[in-house]
Sequence to fold (221 residues):
Amino acid sequence: MIGKLSGRLDYRATDHVLIDVGGVGYMVYCSERTMAVLPGPGEAVSLFTELLVREDLLQLFGFTTLIEKEWHRMLITVQGVGAKASMAILSTLGPDGVSRAVTLGDWNAIKAAKGIGPKTAQKVVLELKDKAPKVMAMGGSLAAAQGTVVAAPENDDVNDDVIERVTTSSASSQAEALSALINLGYAHGDAASAVAQAAGDGAAETPALIRTALKLLAPKE
Fold:
């Protein structure tokens, strides 16, 4: 299994690139969002990859992060969602957007992807909703494994009461939920308050904490 490629980008097309790795060229298909951040021809590039194996086809798909790769792996387990549909969803929403949409049950956001109908979008949400928080929590685990520390902004309004509630007996689950929300772009103070409130409402495990906190952080109409 080819899990990662590092080499020189030879050329770019609309939906794929050719990467030279030690004189061997690998054609790698990517989402539009991934294509947008890749370097130009002749420059160094590194992508996590997933190999699609069929009787008449071997096809590599590339991702800038392991979270994006994991969402691709999850999406293609849904009946009716192939690799092309997965790329369309990731192109439209990105991994963070998929995390929010699936966790909150927002199938309309999934339906916005090219070629995805309402029935397929609903099926994605239904089948992956319980698995989404675990994928989101990967962000915190990966950051910890890489020695990355997400610090609160100096001027962030996190009061002592919030910090105390976030660091209770279920501190590990709350820390994972907090890290996942921060990786989604929420401010540390807002995320900490939401996690604390979710814990106060009875949520204990990481998936439940993330789901409840996301609902609390969702814009109020």
